[in-house]
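Lecture 7, part B: from sequences to assemblies.

Below are the input chains for today's worked example.
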Amino acid sequence: MDLQLLKKQEHQRRVRKGFMWALFCAILWGLWYIPGTVVWVLNPFDEMYAEIAATNGDGMSLIITAVLITAFNALTVILALMVWNGVLGKFGEMKRTLKEFNPCSKWFFLASIFGGPMAILGSFIAMGFVGGAFAAVAALMYPVVGSILASKWYGEKISKRAFAGIVFIIFGGITIFGGGLLTEIGAGNVVWIGYIGGLMAAVGWGIEGAIAGKGLDIAEPDVGLTLRFLGENIIWWVIAVPILAILGFPMFKYALMVFEPLTMLVLVFAGITFGFCYVTWYKSFPLIGVGRGQGIGNLYGLFAVVFIALFFGDIPDWTILVGGALCLIGSSIMFSEDTSQLESLRGE
Amino acid sequence: MVQTEAAMEAYNAYWLNSPLPAADVLWMVVILVIAIVALWQARTFVSQF
Amino acid sequence: MAGNRPIKFRILELCNKSGGAWNYEVVRQIQKEYNLKGDYQRDSINFDLIELASCSLLRDVEVMVDEEGIYKKGFLLHKYVITDFGKARAENACLMYV
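Predicted structure of the full complex, as structure tokens:
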């Protein structure tokens, strides 16, 4: 057998698997929007929203309710990840990695701060004070932040071609949500804090990816991601929820009312999609790099609109055709890149 | 505790306009299938190296 | 102590010698130390090596086709050595003496 040929094949296989994981991430992320949307109308969250909105206004209520939903989402993510790690036999490695705070788990806890309170909360702030389309578009910018950071910080190679692919996918996403974006901003009563929220989302997820890439140097992705969600659970349940309760919001009252079969079921599905989307995202980073992994992950915008159309019957704007085409061009630019460039992801 | 009537109504309204049959159950099936495929891939893809 | 630290740490240690180490040697050693049995665990550890190489912490100094089935017949055997970047990265983690 030819050595050079086998080498090339092995290497192409690695890159292909990396893209496969990033694509899984995008699909699962898109699917998350189904449970992530319907959970809002269920008890106790609808009542919680109404109660807080009556005293503090809609925008504020959306954020406070979002904290509780996100906290429960983080809990069910851990459940889903226990299944994932159980099937892959990673519990031993998880214990070993958790104990190595300084070299390993520190990075994942740090990633959880940027990905959790900063990005997710920012995203909800953008949603609450500007609108859903703006929140979606703002979040799409995160691969730019992620790939620039990864390249400046630890020299991840990001080719012009890969960057072009990322830019195409971002413009594709903007086009998909474009109509809604114009309506929202044109409405005029936009509060500046909404824009800050959008910025928090883009910067938060970008930084998270770069930090995760750093931690994943010397840890396994499945394990690293589980530690990241352990961190996020601590942030929500030990810090955010109690603080909001002390400030007088009815956090615990509604948290205790969540044990209702349909609400739990929807939260479990939110956990499966969110947890698996994140773990596949992390799995792609060591194989194709943070920039490409995030770029392909960005296809979630397209998948979300498609799944929402399929399951909710919401007919998307015609701009989805143009935006979807741009996403497709961007992805093929990345998929078809000569992979010999990717022998190692970082410069010497 | 059960869902209030208003909550159930809002929940069920989501699936009414779906072009797919039994969309209220189908979305869970789709998620489970994709999740299982991902897990199966994670368990088997390392054997290709 | 063997079998107590994350697998990637131990892999970097094992590859931290002049001339490097063959992947099948590293994989067998780790399987023994961590008591990880079976083909899936073997492939999983080997994939850790591939990830480390992909992130430039390891680089292969020699590649050979496994004709006789030393490891997996028809697959590639890699001899990996730790890079300078890998050493620097591992310095605060596992290679205290570097």
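Note for the exam: Chain A has one domain: 29-337. Keep this in mind when comparing with the next example.
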